[in-house]
Fold:
Amino acid sequence: MIHRVEEYIKIPRPIFQRENIQEVVEAALQAISNEVMEKNVSFRLETGGLKGDGSLFLDKGLMVLALSHVFRNSIDAVTLAASGKKKKEVKIGLLEEGEELGISVSDRGEGIVKKDLDRIFEPFFSTRPERIGLGLTFVKRVMEEHGGRVEVDSRLKRGTTVTLFFQKDRRRKIRRELLSQEASE
Structure:
């Protein structure tokens, strides 16, 4: 628990480097590979939604850690919801829309109750007593540090999709903001 609290409090300033989004996802999957095998969950990575080379500026270490939290939530969801012949699978989709790249993580788990959806990013909020409730809080904070956003779509008994959206070229956005401030002065 102390480790998770420290992890949240001491999020370092990101060190941005050009990274390939698929390689970042694969590194995060590697980081949780023991849990994946232990709980017999399969991950399917779909890259068909990428139009370009899938490169963007981000802090790979922070993103691997953030994705690991999202993946663990999906592992828990499909493990708890699995019954009989239902396959324990999580789908990861890489997508590109306009000036954004995205990572979509979908599971067919239990889903999130509508009243809890507004609270999932709050520190220490968890529906599982054995959990601390800092995973998605960490993810949201890391995404904000990257100039991105997190969207969650969930249906009870049908599953959840968490999508992380990044600006393709953060530098261009920052330059535009600086130029528009100078123009308004």
Q: What stands out?
A: The CA atoms of residues 67 and 169 lie 20 Å apart. The radius of gyration is 17 Å. The domain at 2-184 is CATH 3.30.565.10 (Heat Shock Protein 90).
